[in-house]
Structure formats: structure tokens, C-alpha cells
Amino acid sequence: MPEFSFTSSSPGAWRDAPWHRSWLTKQANILFGLFDPVAINPRGGFFDLDATGKPLPGKAVRPIHTTARAVHCYVIASLLGRPGSDRMIDHGMQYLWHGHRDGKHGGYMWSLDDDGPKDASKQGYGHAFVLLAASSAKLVGHPLADRMLADVTTVLNDRFWEEQHGAIAEEFERDWTPMRGYRGQNSNMHLTEALMAAYEATADQEYLRKAERIADLIINRRARECDFRVAEHFDERWAIDRSYRAVNEMFRPSGTTPGHWLEWARLALQLWVLGGKKHDWMPSAAEMLFRRSVELAWDGTKGGFFYTLDWADKPSFRFKPWWPIAEAAGAASFLAEHRPSAFHEEWYRRIWNTIAEAYIDREHGGWFEELDEQLRPAHSLFVGKADLYHALQACLIPLYPAQGSLTNMIRQRYDASSSKTSIDGDV
């Protein structure tokens, strides 16, 4: 696809342009409109959607991160004043507390179906999203938020956190028997996101301290050792395991996953701001993570980010899911604010041009969750439209200052100007 090269003499930043902001607002509303009418499963949790936006047939398995992310997204909707969002929040919180929460052994089970637990393991990735959901729900005063926040914090501290490493263990059996031999960055990355949200919701510095320790381990030490390629897989001592072969390509793909480099670029800048800008390594690391991603993983011929690379930096899985380019939009937005340059503005525009041309499903709504190498809709790993979280945040992050989480920035903006009904194209 032809690519326009932005220069320092080109017009101003798109993030400041009213038309661009209105366009992003419209896309966010379309995403909500796809999920609002059909997402609630009356048996608890939320349906995954097929490619046309209808609930997937069969006995619905509800993994915990799907429910928790929906809570987070509809807290965003509630903060923005979207009618009907509070019902979605309550539906998700009730299912997390009364369904996923393990009343016998403690913690939160990975997945449920209509008959109860489907996979009762206790996973760090899932608990990170419970922390995010509870922290977000606290911002809108949900009655379960404080109890859930205290409960999942205790579980993370007592069961998952490994102080000697400054990160969490990956997984346990239902009765907390350890599953040995593996540590993963993905669960710790999302815990970093959730810890920052918990800090913003409570002002408890311990959440921030843990987030900074995880970032130091995974980015300042291990990614720096790899010239800012983020390793995914580690042994129990947090030595990189380059030989790891995936059992689950969705959550633990082999090789490296550049979409996570992009996600970390934004999270590192957010953590830098929340920590008082005292860690000088964070903004420079964010710049390097973004640059490595676009240099090594962007398809210079067709556009889009390859899903995974091998350790020789060659594309391994060559298809192009929606979530890496969504994370790229958020990272480019944060960099454009904290490290403004023609380079970051050019990539911000290129990313959104590609999303608009290839990822947005104008027939059925939402985004295609997977494109093949030629940017055609595909379903090799992702079967429908299960996710609101990545695409929604990509649309909304550029509308707010890059000074914290999206939820907290919306809350602060509306607290400061509660009588204002619209803000430069905000939803």
C-alpha cells in the first residue's frame, strides 16, 4: 500500500485535529454498538462474537480475561456517560465474584461454561485482569469493587508474587499445586497495567513499586540484553528460554511477539509518568521498543505487523492480528506526546491509515481480529470478534492526555469539567 512520508513541514499532529478526534469517537461508538446488544450471556459472563457480530454457537466457554476486560471497557463507557454500561459492569463483576472466584481454595479459576469450571487452574494472566477489573470498577463505585480488589491483591501477594525476582509466577493447579518450570512475560506485562490502575484507584504506593520492579526485570534488564527485543519465555530463575515451543499459540507463542514490544512502549511511558518521571531509562526504552517493532515486524510491502518473529528476526507466524496494530496506535500516541518527532507522527498516521483501510469491518461493525499476510480477513487462530478491549483503547487513548491510564484520564477530565457535555470529539 502506498505510504505518505510525514515531514517536519507537514501539517500538525493528527491527535490535535478535531476531524481526526471525531473520527476516533465514531469508531469507538461503533465498537460499543457491536457489543452492547448481544454480549451479555444470561448464564453469566459474556458471549464471544462470530465474524458477523452474533454470539458464537454452542456451549460458551468464558475465560476469565474476557469477563474482566468487558468490565474494564464498560467502566470506560460509564465514565463517558454511555447509557446501559452500568448493567454490563454489574453483570461482569457478579460473574467474576460468584463464578470465577474459587470459594474453596481461593483465587480465580481460568474458565467456566454453563456447567461450572471448565479449566480451574489459577493463572497469573487471569488474576492480572481481575485486578484491572476491580480497580476500574472502583472508579465508578461498584459495590463489589473494594472486596474484589482486596481479595485479588491478597492472592497475588501471597500466591503469585516472587519478591526475589520482582515478578509473578505463572500458573498453579486449582489447589495451588505449582506448575513448575516456566515464567512468562505476558502475564507480568498485563499485571503491570493492572498494578498501575490499582495505584491510580487507591494511591497505594506498593502497587506502583511492584509495577516498577516488573518493568525493570523484563524491559530494563532482559529486553535491554536483547537490544530491546522482548523475550516471552523464561525459566524459574528468569533466564530467557529461546528454545521454548508453544503449547498455546494464542497466549504463549514461540519466538518473540512484537505486539508486546509495542504494548510495553506505552506502559513504560505511563509508568514513568506515574512514578514522577524519576526512572530515566523508561522513555528511552519506550522509544527503542517502538523503533524495533516497526523496523523488524512491520510488513513494508503490504503493511501490518507480523504476529511473531523467530530469534533471527524473521517472521514466523506471518498473519496479522488486530491487537498488535491496536497497541501500536496507543504507543505512537504516547510517544507523540512525550517524545514528539516527525518519526512518531508519521508512524501514528501510517498505523491509523492501515487500520482504516484493512482492519475495520464496515459491513458488520468492529474490527477483523485476524488478517492474512495480504491483509485479507482470515481465521487461523482467532475465530470471530471476541475482543472489545484492544480496539476500543486504541480509539480512545489519543483523545486524552498521556498522563496515566485511560480510565483515570477520563475520570480526571470529567471531574475537572463535569458540566461540559462534549470535549473535542470525545465519546
From TrEMBL:
GO terms for biological process: carbohydrate metabolic process. The keyword Iron-sulfur does not apply. One of its GO terms (molecular function) is isomerase activity. Keywords: Isomerase. The keyword Isomerase applies. CDD domains: AGE (cd00249). InterPro entries: 6-hairpin_glycosidase_sf, 6hp_glycosidase-like_sf, AGE/CE, AGE_dom. Pfam families: GlcNAc_2-epim. It comes from the Bacteria. Belongs to the N-acylglucosamine 2-epimerase family. This is AGE family epimerase/isomerase. It comes from Mesorhizobium atlanticum.
